[in-house]
């Protein structure tokens, strides 16, 4: 299929996205809003492998040349980029009952904001670097591999502690499903690919299963398509593909040796 060359909608929200942890933030929330309020939207797949996100028409919407981005045609074509900003924008304007958010003057709003900032400035960047050095570099480099995978493990430990006795990250009591959870779940969705073992974090694992059982979340993870890096897909490929299993074993061995070389010891927080 040819790549998009501009906006196609005249009304509603238009989502420009790709199948990445950050991209899924927007599509999951939009599917939740659609189910809850009947808020429909249009989406286009922006293939970051073809650098479509660097085209002038796209950078006019997102100066940073990254996905996701949205354009709100019902508000004079107002454009929003960065996953965190998209989540807060959409709930501020289209979640009047606070089904996925909290009143702005509440402490719960601040708690959700803190965990979203934690993801935006910590978990996402660290796990993204873990992916790069654990999976993609042609030359295996011990120090950054153990550094970023180790820091991702530490952050998962922080999240695991937060979820002790809770069902969701923010909200009173055991919590309420909100954009704080949506901001995180796309990254946990590829934990295995990043060299992390969810069995090490039982509260995170139970939380992940709880969220991915939601029909709207499942639909959001399918836009524009399901990631082949998601935990279930990686597990299935390891069962069926000897070459993939061999590579996974080599990566795991390299990570273990890198940790030993630099005296890595898991500790959280």
Automatic annotation (TrEMBL):
Keyword Transferase: yes
GO molecular function terms attached to this record: transferase activity
Gene3D superfamilies tied to this protein: 1.20.1050.10, Glutaredoxin
Ranges where the GST N-terminal domain occurs: 14-98
Occurrences of domain GST C-terminal (ranges): 105-233
Keywords: Transferase
Similarity section: Belongs to the GST superfamily.
Protein name (record): Glutathione S-transferase
Organism listed in the record: Microdochium bolleyi
